[in-house]
C-alpha cells in the first residue's frame, strides 16, 4: 500500500502543478493578505512592544494551513467524485486509504511550501526574527497536527458538496469566518465579545494560531493571549481531539461516488 500511496501522491502533485490558477491562488493569496494586513497595521504595536505585522505573520501560518489543507482536500475530493475519478479508482486494486494518503501527501507538501512563503515574507519584509531550535520542535508538532486535522475535516466536509463547481465557495465560508473570530485577522482576541471568544475556542483554528504565535513571537507576547498564557498543553489537546473527530467523520461520510449512501 505504501507504493500505491506514494504513486498516488506523485500523481496528485503533478496534476496540481499543471493547474496554474490553483498554484497562484493557493500560494499567493495568503501571502497577499499578509502583505495587505501587515502594511496597513505594520506601524502599530501591541502592548508588549511587538509590531502588528509580526503578529499577523505568525497567525497567518494557521490561515495558510487551513486554506491549503481544508479547501484543497475538500474541493479535490468533490471534483474527483463528480468527474468519476473516484469511481474509476474503485475498480482498481487501490484501496481508499491509499488514495486518501496520496491526497494527504499533496496537502502536506503544499502546506510546507505555503508556510515557507509566509515565513519568508515575514522575515524579509516585516523583520520577524526566526525562532531558536526548541521552538522549531514545537512548530513541527503543531504544524503536523494542524495539517492532519484540517485535511481530515476537508475529507468529511467534501461529502456535503453536491456540485464540485461550488466547492471552493462553500468551503471558504467557514475558512474566512473562523479567521476573523480565531485571532488571525483580529488581534488581540480580547476585542471580540466573550461569547464569540468561547465559540472560537471550540474550533482548532484559534489554537493553531496561538501555537504559531508562541513559536515566532517573544515570550512577552503571551500577555495578549486570552488568559495571558500560551497554554500549549491545551493547543495539543484540542488539535488532537479534532484529529480524532475528523477521522471518525471521514469513516462515516467517505463515499466513492455521489450515488453511494
From TrEMBL:
This is Transport permease protein. It is a multi-pass membrane protein. Residues 21-257 form the ABC transmembrane type-2 domain. Belongs to the ABC-2 integral membrane protein family. The chain crosses the membrane at residues 21-41, 61-79, 100-126, 138-161, 168-186, 235-254. GO terms for cellular component: ATP-binding cassette (ABC) transporter complex. It comes from the Bacteria. GO terms for molecular function: ABC-type transporter activity. InterPro entries: ABC2_TM (IPR013525), ABC2_TM_bact-type (IPR047817), ABC_2_transport (IPR000412), Nod_factor_ABC_transporter (IPR051784). Keywords: Antibiotic resistance, Cell membrane, Membrane, Transmembrane, Transmembrane helix, Transport. One of its GO terms (biological process) is response to antibiotic. It is found in: Cell membrane; Membrane.
Amino acid at each position: 500500500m505504501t507504493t500505491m500511496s506514494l504513486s498516488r501522491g506523485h500523481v496528485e502533485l503533478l496534476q496540481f502543478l499543471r493547474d496554474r490558477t490553483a498554484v497562484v491562488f493557493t500560494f499567493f493569496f495568503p501571502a497577499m493578505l499578509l502583505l495587505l494586513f501587515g502594511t496597513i497595521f505594520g506601524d502599530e504595536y501591541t502592548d508588549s512592544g511587538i509590531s502588528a505585522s509580526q503578529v499577523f505573520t505568525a497567525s497567518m501560518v494557521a490561515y495558510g494551513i487551513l486554506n491549503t489543507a481544508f479547501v484543497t482536500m475538500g474541493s479535490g475530493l468533490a471534483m474527483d467524485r463528480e468527474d468519476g475519478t473516484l469511481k474509476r479508482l474503485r475498480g482498481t486494486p487501490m484501496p481508499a486509504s491509499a488514495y486518501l494518503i496520496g491526497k494527504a501527501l499533496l496537502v502536506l507538501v503544499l502546506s510546507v511550501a505555503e508556510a515557507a512563503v509566509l515565513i519568508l515574507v515575514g522575515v524579509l519584509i516585516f523583520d520577524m526574527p526566526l525562532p531558536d531550535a526548541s521552538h522549531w520542535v514545537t512548530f513541527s508538532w503543531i504544524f503536523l497536527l494542524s495539517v492532519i486535522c484540517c485535511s481530515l475535516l476537508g475529507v468529511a466536509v467534501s461529502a456535503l458538496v453536491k456540485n464540485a463547481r461550488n466547492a471552493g465557495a462553500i468551503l471558504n465560508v467557514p475558512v474566512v469566518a473562523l479567521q476573523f473570530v480565531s485571532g488571525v485577522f483580529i488581534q488581540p482576541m480580547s476585542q471580540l465579545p466573550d461569547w464569540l471568544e468561547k465559540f472560537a475556542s471550540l474550533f482548532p483554528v484559534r489554537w493553531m494560531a496561538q501555537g504559531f504565535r508562541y513559536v515566532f513571537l517573544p515570550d512577552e507576547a503571551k500577555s495578549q493571549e486570552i488568559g495571558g498564557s500560551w497554554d500549549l498543553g491545551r493547543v495539543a489537546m484540542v488539535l488532537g481531539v479534532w484529529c480524532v473527530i475528523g477521522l471518525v467523520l471521514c469513516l462515516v461520510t467517505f463515499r466513492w461516488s455521489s450515488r453511494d449512501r
